[in-house]
């Protein structure tokens, strides 16, 4: 659900250049990330053995921070060379790709790897 809400926010942000669209996009992106992070953290922990829970927490925290940092860095480089409009549409496309990847691959992987009894 969070990926879809965040996708709607990115699409709204890229498609409309009105002040209220920016506010609504920020709200949707924030709500989407707020739904995604705890869900993904729970997914990481649920596929790990009990003695690997710390590693699972560390892995998601590191990957989330690296993804945010690299995304911001690459977004700045892209904006410098292609402009903000192309950057916003690229980010919307990347969110769409991530949403589709989650829905068609990651979800099935999680359901298949989930530990018994949880």
3D architecture notes:
The radius of gyration is 16 Å and the shape is elongated. The protein has one domain (2-113). The longest helix is centred in the middle third of the chain and has 30 residues, at 53-82. The protein has helices spanning 2-15, 19-47, 53-82, 84-113. It is mainly α. 87% of the residues lie in helices and 0% in strands.
Oligomer: single chain
Spans where pLDDT lies below 50 across 5 or more residues: none
What overall geometry do the principal axes of the alpha carbons give?
Answer: elongated
**How many extended strands?**
0
How can the largest sheet be summarized?
Answer: none
- How many domains comprise the coordinates? 1
Range of strand content: under 5%
Q: Work out the radius of gyration.
A: 16 Å
SSE string: HHHH
Mean pLDDT: 87
| Helicity range | over 70%
Count of DSSP H/I helices: 4
Any descriptors?
4 helices
List the helices and strands and how they pair.
Layout: H1 2-15, H2 19-47, H3 53-82, H4 84-113
Helix pairs in contact: 1-2, 1-4, 2-3, 3-4
Q: What's the quick description here?
A:
The protein is mainly α. The chain is 87% helix and 0% strand.
């Amino acid at each position: 659900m969070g990926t879809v809400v965040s996708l709607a926010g990115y699409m709204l942000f890229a498609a409309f250049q009105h002040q209220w669209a920016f506010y609504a996009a920020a709200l949707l992106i924030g709500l989407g990330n707020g739904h995604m992070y705890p869900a993904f953290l729970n997914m990481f922990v649920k596929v790990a053995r009990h003695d690997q829970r710390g590693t699972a927490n560390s892995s998601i925290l590191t990957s989330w921070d690296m993804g945010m940092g690299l995304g911001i860095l690459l977004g700045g480089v892209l904006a410098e060379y292609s402009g903000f409009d192309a950057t916003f549409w690229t980010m919307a496309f990347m969110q769409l790709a991530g949403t589709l990847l989650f829905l068609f691959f990651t979800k099935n992987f999680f359901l298949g790897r989930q530990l018994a009894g949880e």
